[in-house]
Amino acid sequence: MKKPLTLLAVALLCVSCAPAANTTPAPAASTSQPTASAPVSLSANSGPQAPGGTIPATTGISWDQASKDKAVDAAGKAMADFARPALEEKQWANDLARWLTPQATADYSAVDPANIPVSRVTGPATLNVDDANGFGVMAAVPTDAGPYTVQLLRTGKDAPWKVNRLTPPSP
Questions:
Q1: Is the separation of the CB atoms in 81 and 91 below 8 Å?
Q2: DSSP bridge partners of 121
Q3: Beta bridge partners of 138
Q4: Phi and psi (nearest 5°) for 39?
Q5: 48 contacts: CB under 8 Å, gap ≥ 6
Q6: How far apart (Å, rounded) are the C-alpha atoms in residues 142 and 121?
Q7: How far apart are CA 134 and CA 155, in angstroms?
């Protein structure tokens, strides 16, 4: 008899603590136009998504020759470490990792270098610079398998360039 009373007391306690149902009707829909609470965002083609939108200023890092030189150097050295299909897998991954972003390190950790179709870099990298974006750049690196595209990123003006993606030439 004690168990049913205890269960009944617990049930009553739970019911008394539970919030009551809301019985007030929902407010009527407003007919006024909403106002923007944030700046207009841009579409993939950098055009405003809403009428009257504006394109933001540059990202704060302007390009200089030193930045370009460091990006070219990083792209070339990363590609040279990548283009070694005969190297033992662990050594290849460790050597390449110093040039990679954390995401790229994870992405390339499962790559078997024996499957890489490139074995050497054949010239200096060239950059495709977007003057409005000082945080990223694409580089073309000539190799014996054709020009690889290397995406480089950095987190600040003095931060090192890191490779986010190495893309083989189109067939």
A1: no
A2: 143
A3: 128, 151
A4: -60, 155
A5: 40, 42, 54, 55
A6: 6
A7: 9
- Structure tokens belonging to residue 61: 């890092």
Q: Which residues pair with 150 in a beta bridge?
A: 139, 166
Rounded to an integer, what distance in angstroms lies between the CA atom of residue 157 and that of residue 148?
Answer: 25
Name the amino acid, one letter, at 151: Q
Provide the edge-to-edge strand list for the sheet that holds 162-167: 126-128, 136-141, 148-153, 162-167
Q: pLDDT tens for the chain, 171 residues: list them.
A: 555 444 444 444 444 444 554 555 555 554 545 454 445 445 555 554 544 444 444 456 889 999 999 999 999 999 999 999 999 999 999 999 999 999 999 999 999 999 999 999 999 999 999 989 999 999 999 999 999 999 999 999 899 999 999 999 988
Task: Identify the H or E element spanning 137.
Answer: strand 136-141
CB 76 within 8 A of CB 124: yes
d(Cα 138, Cα 67) in Å, to the nearest integer? 13
Q: Residues in the chain, how many? A: 171
Joined tokens for residue 84: 């070694």
CA distances from 16 to 5, 7, 10, 24, 163 (A): 16, 14, 10, 20, 60
Q: What is the pTM of this model?
A: 0.66
Q: Which H or E run contains 126?
A: strand 126-128
